[in-house]
């Protein structure tokens, strides 16, 4: 996947996951091993940042970005978040559909599917289209794993720039072109330089995602949309979840606080509670 020919525009791949909406109060399901999914769902917020960044790149470098492809790996209802991505400005969508009963794939499984799509240049058309950049959310708000981008970079043997809060292109997008990424790190910011192709994961301060307008929502219905299965990709035996959730419980309810009139009483209360 390294550059071997003349300059050409880059195709951007953006993975999108369907998660329970961030504003919904999560409840434990009756089986005690999962959460109640009978709630409002939406695109993972970090993935919306990824779509927005890809669209901004294409708007700024019209000749440098050939296409933005959004891809989701999940049950049939995941098509909804792909339509959102198309309405925000993506050009086409790929849905790798898995049965509803199987739930979500673990990060390693998702990474293997994405790596297959990238390596084989799978597109919505008949011809193969090389990917030069993957922009993924740094984590999904349901499992908070923060692993898919890093695993994908390892499988592709590509550089990675994770937790990005700023992307600067030092020239027009092209394979081999240098880029600079500002990263959110503990206690401050870090700056790294790398080259296309690479994997980037997005952090909250990268941008503010746009709303999908009604005209764009209508236009999204006519954009190319391809459905695949794990069997179509030859991964039905390679992509298996390895973890089993034994129990899910709600966090303990917070107890009410107590006001104290002076330091002596504060020390006394802390001693009673066994804190000092």
UniProtKB/TrEMBL annotation:
Cofactor: FAD; AMP
Residue ranges occupied by any Electron transfer flavoprotein alpha/beta-subunit N-terminal domain in the UniProt entry: 31-237
Alphabetical UniProt keywords: Electron transport, Mitochondrion, Transport
Cofactor, how bound (note): Binds 1 FAD per dimer. Binds 1 AMP per subunit.
Residue ranges crossing the lipid bilayer per the database entry: none
Molecular-function GO term, any one: electron transfer activity
Keyword Electron transport on entry: yes
Main location: mitochondrion
Protein name: Probable electron transfer flavoprotein subunit beta
Organism of provenance: Tilletiaria anomala (strain ATCC 24038 / CBS 436.72 / UBC 951)
